[in-house]
Amino acid sequence: MRPSSPSLDASPVVAPAGHAGAAERVPAGGEAGAPLALGTDRTGGDAPRTVGGPPPRGALARFRWTVGPYVALTKPRVIELLLVTTIPTMFLAAGGFPPLGLVVATLVGGAGAAGAANTLNQYLDRDIDAVMNRTRRRPIVTGRATPRAALVFGAVLGVVSLAWLWLAVNPASALFTGAAIAIYVVGYTMILKRRTPQNIVWGGAAGCMPVVIGWSAVTGGVSWSALLLFGVVFFWTPPHYWPLSMKFRRDYAAAGVPMLPVVAADTRVAREMIAYTLAMIACSLLLVPVAGMTWVYAVVAAALGAWFLWSCVTLLRRAQDPQRGPLKAMSVFHGSITYLTLLSVAIAVDVFLPL
Questions:
Q1: Average pLDDT, whole number, for the chain?
Q2: What pLDDT is recorded for position 148?
Q3: Which of 117, 150, 282, 326 is deepest in the core (most CB within 10 A)?
């Protein structure tokens, strides 16, 4: 068993700090690398359609028709990524396999709480979801779930999840989970998302909480190792989400959401992504002395960090010189998921290495 660590989406933005220069990228087709005007519908899409008609025949089909929209409200694929960081954290905190019942209880409560936060986010953002092509098929927009039903579902799911964590895990994990819900629903969705291009930076802190929740589930508190894991996910979030915002910048501009790629040139976004990536790599490597990780983890973390950093540098080079080819921002987005998944696997495996 390795040694344990010592315990321990403002005023509206109307313009970016800089401006697009001659060398900064402006992709063809008007999908500009320069700032876009907020609140102007440039999507050219049709209005969202309401899904109507009677439910399908058959008990199973009717069950899926009824339950499906509420499952979609929880954003299961987002929850999967959050849980990917929770399990390795619990292994590291325990110095091996934690009790299986504790792991299951933590994952159930964490998934329910994340689903509640995602549901409340869609309830609050239903107006802009109807404007954006990327979100116009969400259950509230299409009419498969009413706003009132979504609100009740999200609130009940949140209360039940917090009560479950309090009783089945421990009060610390429940309190950290409640803080995560508050950060995402109130801090990000209600306050930051429509007001500042740094919305995803500070609001993204909610996505870092699963590592703290997982650690506290095992130990009843937090440690420097847990805070470094928090830092890895915190600094990973901007270079993960901003490439997605680049692809859907027209959507965000039409909805009046000042994501950084909407209000700033691609070169500025890429530079900030590089800065956050460097901080992320530093946190991942500091785990070696602080958490007692082996040289195997150190090599893997350094290699993964260098690979993802190069993808961000490549994005910057293409933003500076269009002759280098298309930005391929989504390759950076998918690469960020690969990075975090493999780093999490490395953490989990390293706990069991006899070194």
A1: 86
A2: 97
A3: 117
Residue 143 to residue 69: CA distance in whole angstroms: 9
pLDDT at site 79: 83
CATH number assigned to the domain with residue range 223-355, chosen from the 4 options 3.30.1490.100, 1.10.238.10, 3.20.20.370, 1.20.120.1780: 1.20.120.1780
What are the structural domain ranges in the chain? Answer: 67-221, 223-355
Q: Is residue 43 predicted with pLDDT exceeding 90?
A: no
Predicted confidence (pLDDT) at residue 150 exceeds the cutoff of 90? yes
- For residue 297, count other CB atoms closer than 10 A to its CB: 23
Report the alpha-carbon distance of residue 39 to residue 59 in Å, rounded: 44
Residue 314 vs residues 249, 254, 279, 332, 339: alpha-carbon distances, Å:
20, 28, 18, 9, 16
Residues paired with 223 in a beta bridge: 7
Burial annotation 246-283 (CB, 10 A radius, 16+ → b, else e): bbbbbbbbbbbbbbbbbbbbbbbbbbbbbebbebbbeb
- Per-residue confidence (pLDDT) for residue 53, from 0 to 100: 56
Crossing angle for the helix pair 205-219 and 224-247, to the nearest 10 degrees: 150
The answer to whether residues 340 and 84 touch, using CB atoms and an 8 Å cutoff, is yes
By mean pLDDT, which of 56-65, 71-80, 334-343 is the weakest?
A: 56-65
Burial of 211-229, coded b for 16+ CB within 10 Å and e otherwise, reads bbbbbbbbbeebbebbbbb
Between CA 318 and CA 327 the distance in angstroms is: 6
Q: Dihedral of CA 56/61/67/71: which sign?
A: negative
Q: Contact, 132 vs 96, CB < 8 A?
A: no
Whole-number Å distance between alpha carbons of 278 and 208: 17
Q: Which residue bears the tokens 């990973």?
A: 236
User: Which secondary structure element, helix H or strand E, spans residue 328, and what is its range?
Assistant: none
φ, ψ at 240 (rounded to 5°): -80, -45
Is-above-0.70 flag for pTM?
yes
